[in-house]
Amino acid sequence: MELDKKPLLGMSLTELKDVVKDLGLPSFTAPQIVKWLYVQHVKSIDDMTNLSKANRARLAESYCIGCANPIDAQYSKDGTIKYLFPVQGDKFVETVYIPDKDRATLCVSCQVGCKMNCLFCQTGKQGFEGSLSACNILNQIYSLPERDKLTNVVFMGQGEPMDNLDNVLKATNILTADYAYAWSPKRITVSSVGIKNKLKRFLDESECHVAISMHSPIPEQRALLMPAEKGMSIREVVELLRQYDFTHQRRLSFEYILFAGLNDTMTHAREIVRLLHGLECRINLIRFHQIPSVPLHETDEKKMESFRDYLTNKGIFTTIRASRGQDIFAACGLLSTAKKIADERR
C-alpha cells in the first residue's frame, strides 16, 4: 500500500460519494468505483477503465486501492492453507483458508495479537499489536487466491472482534451490502468472548451469525481460563442473548474447547444444560492443541463423544469440530505472528 495515500478498499458507497464530490468528479463515478472494487477486484486505479484518464489521475493523486497480496503461504496435508498478510504499521496477520467438499471457509483476523490473553490461545501470548482497519480485514478476502471459491467467512482468527467493533461492522456491512459483495449474513460468523456493551451493539447492528467462546459454564473456572469473564460473565452473556431471536435464520453457537480433567466432566455438561436452558443454540466442541508452557491437555476422543452425546440428548445440538491445519499451526488457538514480527524487526 502507498503510505501517503488513503485506501479505497474498505470504503462504503456513501464514503466513495464523498471522495468523488471532494475531487470534483462526476457523481456517477462513485458507483463505478464501487463495482471496480467489490465486483472486479482491481489492483490499481488505472485498471478502472471506464473512468477517464484525467479522472483516474486525479483519484490516484490522493488514493490507492489498498490491497496487498499475501507474502507467505503454508500448506497442510489436509488441504488447509495459512496465509500471511501484511497490514498497516509493518505488521502481519495470519488468515486460514479451509476447503471442505462443497464448502470453503476463510478464518479472518481482526487484530494483530489480542488483549484477551486466554490461557489456551497462542495469539494471546503474542500480546496486542494493534487493530486492523476495515481495509486490512477485507483485504484478506480481496487478495485471497481462492476468493471466488469462498462460501463462508468466520471472524475467528487473531484478535477479539468486539474489541475492534467499528471496523468489523464496517467490513461485514460491505460484505453484505447490495452495492458491494451482496453476501447473505448467513455466510458470516463473528466470534466473541463477550464484551459488555460491544456485544449488544453487534447484536443490534448486525444480522451475522454469532459464536460465543464459553469453554466453561462455571464463572470462577472460566475466569481462570479467560480473563474477559471478569468484565462480562458468561451468565451475563447468556442473559443478553436471551433478548434476541435465534429461532429463524440467524444462528447462535457456543465454542467449547475440552481440556482433560478440567472442563470435560458430566458436572460441566449438566451446568451447560442448566445455563442454556430454553435458548436456541448449538455447541461446537473443539480439540485443544497444545501450546508451549501451558498446563492444559487434550481430552480423549471417547470423552468428547460422551460429552457431545449427553448435550445432544438434552436437546442441545452439539458437534465435534474437525481439527484442520494442525500441522501448519493453523488450527484453533494456534495463530500467532509474534516470531514473524520479531524476525522483520531484526
Explain what the structure shows:
- With 346 residues, the chain is of the alpha/beta class.
- Helix content is 32%, strand content 20%.
- It is built from twelve helices and 14 strands.
- The strands form three sheets. It has a ten-stranded mixed β-sheet. A two-stranded parallel sheet has the order 1-2. Strands 7-8 form a two-stranded antiparallel ribbon.
- α1 packs across α2 and α5 crosses α6.
- It is elongated.
Indicate the percent of residues in helices: 25-40%
Largest sheet: 10 strands, mixed
Number of helices: 12
Average pLDDT score: 93
Query: What percent strand?
Result: 15-25%
Shape: elongated
What is the terminal separation in angstroms? 22 Å
Low-confidence stretches: 341-346
Descriptors:
12 helices; alpha/beta; two-stranded parallel sheet; 346 residues; single chain; disordered C terminus
Would you spell out the secondary-structure blueprint of this structure?
Layout: E1 6-7, H1 13-23, H2 29-38, H3 53-62, E2 63-64, E3 72-75, E4 81-87, E5 91-100, E6 103-107, E7 111-113, H4 122-126, E8 128-131, H5 134-142, E9 152-155, H6 165-176, E10 188-192, H7 198-205, E11 209-213, H8 219-225, H9 234-241, E12 252-258, H10 266-276, E13 282-287, H11 301-313, E14 317-320, H12 338-345
